[in-house]
Design brief:
globular, binds nicotinamide-adenine-dinucleotide, alpha/beta, Rossmann fold
């Protein structure tokens, strides 16, 4: 299948986890992908493994680095059709016990990082009639103990997605978000001990009860690929929940 044939794509945080799976699937579907990460070693490794067109690293909290990396990707690819804003971090803490510094840090990556990367890519996406896929979370749709500031950042990503989509509609640029439940990555591995301590329940049991199974990075990449493709030509301002039914149930 080559639903992304010829699409020129920049994926932040694609050295590992969901971002890497998105970059890999997009390459399989015919896209030319530039990998980007704050961790240069993992970006190089990821790009080599998946057959990316190149690497343009940035820390998304640094606007100058983001602008330079987007320009590098545009130079490598000869333009840009898709931005995937995937880079994000978690913090497990009861909200009102979290330090203000760590609150600022998670907002700097998840919200400000998404904002500055959208801004840097927009002129190129307007030129190509391209689109943006932002990585939100079900944590942006509902609350979760221990994930207070994370939930707030992902709600902000959904709202920026909506407003950018409406404001950009006249330009032909689409903007959508993906909201996964718990998926099998290093991020969730890091969260497990705190969730188990808070719920007094093995994390596997919690996941089985709430969402059937852990999501895979590939589950999420499939939805991102659809949104990035021309098949989603009338889809904009949406946030797609994929969580095995977790948010569908009150009990
Ligand atoms: N894993 C899940 O269950 C889950 C669920 C919902 C949403 N998400 C979201 O999906 C995205 C990817 O999560 P993941 O589980 O793959 O995480 P991960 O920690 O496994 O990978 C994240 C990648 O982003 C990079 N990164 C971190 N900070 C960065 C920065 N400042 N600039 C550039 N790159 C940076 C890391 O180096 C890493 O390669 C995040 O936005 C996360 O919030 C994850």
């Amino acid at each position: 299948m080559s639903e992304l044939q010829g699409k020129r794509v920049f994926v932040t945080g694609s050295g590992a986890g969901i971002g890497k799976a998105i970059a890999a699937l997009f390459v399989q579907r015919g896209a030319q992908v530039v990998v980007s990460d704050v961790n240069a070693d993992s970006a190089e490794r990821s790009a080599g493994e998946i057959g990316a067109a190149g690497v343009a690293n940035c820390d998304v909290t640094d606007e100058g680095q983001v602008e330079a990396a987007v320009q590098q990707a545009v130079d490598l690819l000869g333009g840009l059709d898709v931005l995937v804003n995937n880079a994000g971090v978690e913090i497990a803490s009861p909200l009102l016990q979290q330090s203000t510094e760590s609150f600022d840090k998670i907002f700097a990556v998840n919200v400000r990082g998404t904002f500055v990367t959208m801004k840097a890519a927009t002129p190129h996406l307007v030129a190509s009639q391209g689109n943006i896929v932002n990585m939100a979370s079900i944590a942006g749709v509902g609350g979760s103990p221990l994930l207070g500031s994370y939930c707030a950042t992902k709600a902000a990503v959904i709202q920026m997605t909506r407003v950018a989509a409406v404001e950009m509609r006249p330009t032909g640029v689409r903007v959508n978000a993906v909201c996964p439940g718990f998926a099998d990555t290093a991020m969730v591995d890091r969260l497990k001990p705190d969730f188990e301590a808070a719920t007094q329940m093995p994390f596997g049991d919690l996941v089985a009860a709430k969402q059937g199974r852990l999501g895979t990075p590939e589950d999420i990449a499939e939805v991102a690929a659809f949104l990035a493709s021309d098949r989603a030509a009338w889809v904009t301002g949406s946030h797609y929940v994929l969580d095995g039914g977790l948010t569908a149930s009150l009990v």
